[in-house]
Amino acid sequence: MPAPVGVFTVADRADWRKILRTVDIIHLPPGGSESMPTVLLVDDESAVRRSLRKLFEKGGLTVREAESGRRALDAIAAHGDIEAVVSDFLMPEINGLDFYDALVAVAPHLKNRVVFLTGAARDPMVHNPVEQRGVPLINKLEDLHIVMDAVKLALLRK
């Protein structure tokens, strides 16, 4: 198994690709395996969830979905099999920071296994508090494969 990964925040593709050079050796089980990691996908946009679901399932992950932070917290409470969370940052009802803080309170084992997506990754009001918590932040759908790589890294973290 590769060495543990550190905390990182993604601001642009060039920096992210440097980090991901070490990810090439990570292999997830093929589709249909019972040992497939389960990822909770949280986004209020169904088209985004649908696109990411296809990518994650093709990459060997089991996917659960929630359309809001509150529903995601309910899903985490109901399903003990969730091993990582990929969440939109700017959502109605509960924003990414409040969601993350509530998530850590109810599921501390997921603290280092969250990846945020946003269209506002370069906004200091968004990226500064996310960086302070040590959570990866990816510009939303800039490159879907970057999201998959970030999930692989998150699954390696304790």
Helix/strand-derived class? Answer: alpha/beta
Give the H and E element order.
Answer: HEHEHEHEHEH
Total beta strand runs: 5
Largest sheet, strands/sense/barrel: 5 strands, parallel
Q: Rg to the nearest angstrom?
A: 14 Å
* Low-pLDDT residue spans: 1-33
Indicate the overall shape.
Answer: globular
Please tally the helical runs, counting DSSP H or I stretches of 4 or more residues: 6
How many structurally independent domains? Answer: 1
CATH topology: Rossmann fold
CATH architectural category: 3-Layer(aba) Sandwich
Q: Name the CATH superfamily assignment.
A: Response regulator
Give the terminus-to-terminus CA distance: 13 Å
Helical proportion, percent range? 40-55%
Strand coverage percent: 15-25%
Outline:
The protein has one domain: Rossmann fold (3-Layer(aba) Sandwich), CATH 3.40.50.
